[in-house]
């Protein structure tokens, strides 16, 4: 197998490890110098889709089976069930993995999935997050494909404490990939809008996103609206909780990534997510459509 498009992670310590247990996935890489078994199981993976809940990832797995014409009997199997943390389904060359809520839970599984694709010698794998979000000045149901990810300080960067120091890293998604997701993933008759825009990503759904309806709130409605307006002026059209981490970690790992989210609420009109569960379900399928078409195009070309 050609090694040219394999993932080379930014951590030389991995080269010195004879084995690696991907603890939260419950996947044991018994011999990092000979990963034939892992290559056999995962070496064909081209796309890793990630989303908040295991249930949504199961639905995505079933949807992709049909869309990509991949045969499979019965329910897709959760390959990481024994890890009791995350669910991972494999549909041909696509993994569908859950990541929970927020950057900290998402980064755990992302680190381990990045190591998995390295050990499996996957060729140029693409990581796509498929999620829900709050909207900023866009109609609920609009799909936003993230360009630059901004943190809760409204800075286009990912900030993380490492060894007691403040570490700041770039947080943008792959430009050409974003273009291609919109180009090959959308159709004029979709019945909803898909836009490229910036995303604000916070560590807190309530205060971090400027909501006044959390358990605690120490600012006025006016201050909140000023903050949201400033975000809008930076080209931010949606708010979620993983984008800066995902953009920065995938950039550091040298893999292409995208973040495709459907808005559930227009935050310029209110804080509460009041759509019905049926509407939410219908909205959640919109990123499936886009990603499904994009993946189909990718695999056929
Ligand atoms: C969007 O929705 C979740 C919070 O409700 C979070 O995972 C996110 O980014
Ligand atoms: N997810 C978020 O992070 N924010 C919202 O407003 C809705 C979904």
Q: What's the short version?
A:
With 301 residues, the chain is α/β, with parallel strands linked by helices.
Polypeptide structure, described:
Belongs to the PNP/UDP phosphorylase family. Residues 46-284 form the Nucleoside phosphorylase domain. The protein has helices at residues 36-42, 54-68, 103-119, 175-185, 221-233, 243-253, 277-300; strands at residues 20-22, 27-29, 47-51, 88-91, 94-98, 126-135, 143-150, 157-162, 165-170, 194-201, 236-240, 256-266. It folds into two domains: 13-123, Nucleoside phosphorylase domain (Rossmann fold); 130-301, Rossmann fold. It has a five-stranded mixed beta barrel, surrounded by four helices. The chain has a two-stranded antiparallel ribbon with strand order 1-2. Helix content is 33%, strand content 25%. The protein is globular and about 60 Å long. The chain binds 1,4-anhydro-D-erythro-pent-1-enitol and uracil. Residues 132-134, 205, 209, 239-241, 264-265, 273 line the site of uracil.
């Amino acid at each position: 197998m050609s090694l040219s498009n394999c993932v080379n992670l930014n951590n030389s310590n991995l080269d010195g490890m004879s084995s690696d247990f991907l603890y939260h996935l419950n996947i044991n890489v018994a011999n990092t110098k000979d990963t034939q078994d892992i290559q056999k199981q995962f070496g064909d993976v081209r796309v890793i889709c990630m989303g908040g809940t295991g249930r949504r990832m199961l639905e995505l797995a079933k949807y992709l089976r049909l869309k990509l014409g991949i045969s499979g009997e019965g329910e897709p199997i959760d390959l990481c069930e024994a890890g009791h943390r995350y669910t991972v389904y494999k549909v041909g060359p696509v993994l569908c993995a859950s990541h929970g809520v927020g950057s900290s839970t998402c980064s755990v599984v992302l680190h381990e999935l990045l190591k998995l694709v390295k050990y499996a010698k996957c060729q140029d794998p693409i990581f796509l997050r498929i999620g829900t979000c709050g909207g900023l000045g866009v109609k609920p149901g609009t799909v936003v494909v993230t360009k630059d990810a901004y943190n809760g300080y409204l800075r286009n960067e990912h900030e993380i404490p490492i060894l007691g120091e403040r570490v700041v890293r770039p947080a943008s998604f792959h430009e050409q990939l974003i273009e291609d997701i919109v180009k090959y993933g959308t159709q004029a008759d979709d019945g909803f809008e898909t836009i490229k825009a910036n995303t604000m990503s916070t560590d807190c759904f309530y205060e971090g996103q400027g909501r006044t309806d959390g358990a605690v709130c120490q600012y006025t409605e006016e201050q909140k609206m000023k903050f949201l307006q400033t975000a809008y002026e930076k080209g931010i059209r949606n708010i979620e909780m993983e984008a800066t981490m995902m953009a920065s970690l995938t950039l550091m790992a040298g893999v292409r990534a995208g973040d495709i989210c459907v808005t559930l609420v227009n935050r310029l009109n209110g804080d509460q997510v009041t759509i019905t569960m049926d509407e939410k379900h219908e909205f959640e399928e919109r990123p499936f459509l886009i990603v499904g078409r994009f993946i189909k195009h990718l695999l056929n070309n």
